[in-house]
UniProtKB/TrEMBL annotation:
<keyword id="KW-0547">Nucleotide-binding</keyword>
<keyword id="KW-0067">ATP-binding</keyword>
<dbReference type="GO" id="GO:0005524">
    <property type="term" value="F:ATP binding"/>
</dbReference>
<protein>
    <recommendedName>
        <fullName>Hsp70 family chaperone</fullName>
    </recommendedName>
</protein>
<dbReference type="InterPro" id="IPR013126">
    <property type="entry name" value="Hsp_70_fam"/>
</dbReference>
<dbReference type="Pfam" id="PF00012">
    <property type="entry name" value="HSP70"/>
</dbReference>
<dbReference type="GO" id="GO:0140662">
    <property type="term" value="F:ATP-dependent protein folding chaperone"/>
</dbReference>
<dbReference type="InterPro" id="IPR043129">
    <property type="entry name" value="ATPase_NBD"/>
</dbReference>
Length: 519
């Protein structure tokens, strides 16, 4: 294994590049795959963001690494470094959520149950697993960046780490992620200055990178639904374009999200294989099952599948261990088995996508309805994320909702979130009033896109006591104040911000509020 990058540097090297001493690292910590992007100030201002595409145990040109861990005695392996015959711990990101936020159906999901069993067997908490993975991912990122820029240059740079999280996550899950990042050593002290950590909503990060891509044309007052379809969660947020040069946008309606991502399509396909093989499925080793899911399904069929109403077959080779030597064929029902291969037809494969796509359709429909109630018309849907790269999802949304759907090619959808996390890091620096992220007071980082306001997901306020008014207050809130000598109404609320209000994305200032209280 590659040694950990030592973030505890012994001395700072002077750097005359006044505007280029900030390094922003964007981490897309996903349910099934994770990615990293990074840029210095100079690179960002020249529209260049670096993507890490080389990983331990894998060749170049892979935009993400599997979010998987394997413990062998005292050694930990992660990502592509895990041997094919190992049974790694997966889906531990979802285990940061409480059962009530997963829902009864998902709690009963085989993938979730399997993840909980792995968690129990590991003897670790979900936070500890996330910390172990983030540590390995961050160390590899720092190794890669140092190799590209040199140790002295990197040691002299201040760091801003942006980790993306699902927009639907509640406060406790975000806090768990912050704790994991701290345990991972990401915030270890550096002579170059304090490392800053920001958590950013995944769809917001995706919007920042996708809408600012070269060649992307948007018009004033356009409204786009950003659909971040990942491995576990699918998050949707709608943005309205305020201006185009540079792009300025505001959240149009409250975002929606659900656990209906790619792993649930995988689970449906695994159930189909299990149902067709029957007892023969139990003859398969964990390695054999993994070979079917990784090599046959995830690498070949799932990312390229598009229904075309032909008689095409999708052939899945089953390891020989599932069959007796004289029984490699089974023609008694569809899909047939020939020479140890299941011959799936188009409808069989389509059914694996049905539940996930139904969940995505519900989310899109809800965004459209909320936008319509607000007097807005949706211009189109922008797809990002691992599942967001699916050509089938692209065709499905166009046909189902009858509107323009935008889907970038190549690695763009899969790396949109980590690239957007870098945007978010520099955008926060652009807004910082204390100039802690900008070297000179007269120099601001030039940002090509920004979000000017968001929809509040919660209401924020303070409790206080008021003079009792029988026409305004409840009798159960009435109590006598011996210090002020009168009846007061307890448990009253002063709201600073209410849910679905549109707070501007500018620094908060504290104000003095005089409330009637007693000691």
């Amino acid at each position: 294994m590659r040694p950990a990058y030592n973030v505890q540097v012994q001395g700072r090297v002077s750097n005359d590049e006044e505007d280029d001493d900030l390094l922003v690292i964007g981490i897309d910590f996903g349910t099934t795959y994770s990615g990293v992007a990074w840029a210095t100030t100079e690179e960002f201002e020249n529209d260049h963001i670096n993507i890490i595409t080389t990983w331990p145990g894998k060749g170049p040109d892979e935009g993400k690494a599997p979010t998987e861990l394997y413990y062998d005695d005292e050694m930990m392996m992660w990502g592509y470094d895990i041997p094919d015959d190992a049974d790694p711990i997966r889906w531990f990101k979802l285990l940061l959520l409480k059962d009530e936020d997963l829902g009864p159906e998902l709690c009963a999901s085989e993938f979730i149950l399997r993840g909980k069993r792995m968690l129990k067997d590991s003897g670790k908490t979900a936070i500890a697993l996330v910390a172990d993975f983030l540590r390995a991912l961050f160390n590899h990122a720092m190794y890669t960046i140092t190799k590209a820029r040199g140790e002295e240059v990197v040691d002299a740079m201040r760091l801003h780490i942006v980790i993306t999280v699902p927009a639907i996550w509640k406060g406790y899950a975000r806090q768990a992620m912050e704790t994991a990042a701290e345990q991972a050593g990401i915030l270890c002290s550096r002579v170059a200055g304090k490392t800053r950590l920001t958590l950013a909503p995944e769809p917001e990060a995706a919007a920042l990178s996708t809408l600012s891509e070269p060649g992307r044309k948007v018009g004033k007052n356009d409204v786009y639904i950003l659909c971040d379809a990942g491995g576990g969660t699918v998050d949707l947020i709608s943005y309205q374009i305020d201006q185009t040069r540079p792009i300025s946008m505001q959240e149009a309606v409250e975002g929606t999200g659900s656990l209906c991502g790619g792993i649930f399509i995988d689970e449906a396909f695994e159930r189909a294989c299990k149902a067709r093989l029957g007892s023969r499925w139990n003859h398969l080793s964990d390695t054999g099952k993994k070979r079917i899911m990784k090599n046959e399904w995830e690498a070949l069929i799932k990312p390229t599948f598009v229904p075309d109403l032909t008689h095409r077959e999708y052939i899945v080779e089953i390891p020989a261990e599932a069959f007796s030597e004289s029984n490699l064929n089974d023609f008694c029902k569809e899909p047939v088995i020939k020479n140890g291969r299941i011959h799936f037809k188009e409808p069989h494969i389509q059914r694996a996508f049905t539940d996930s796509f139904n969940g995505i359709d519900e989310l899109v429909t809800k965004q459209i309805r909320m936008a319509t109630r607000s007097g807005l018309t949706i211009t189109g849907i922008i797809l990002v994320g691992g599942l967001g790269a699916s050509p089938y999802l692209y065709d499905h949304l166009k046909e189902k909702h009858g509107m323009k759907v935008l889907q970038s090619g190549g690695m763009q959808p899969r790396t949109a979130i980590c690239r957007g996390a870098v945007h978010k890091g520099f955008l926060d620096g652009h807004r910082a009033e204390d100039q802690t992220l900008v070297k000179r007071p007269d120099h601001r980082v030039k940002v090509p896109i920004q979000v000017t306001s968001t929809v509040s997901r919660s209401s924020y306020g303070v409790t206080y006591r008021a003079e009792f008014d029988r026409f305004r207050h409840l009798q159960e809130d009435k109590e006598f104040d011996v210090y002020l000598g009168g009846w007061r109404a307890k448990n009253q609320m002063h709201w600073y911000l209410r849910r679905v209000n549109f707070p501007r994305m500018s620094p908060w200032r504290t104000t003095k509020l005089t409330l009637s209280t007693s000691s």
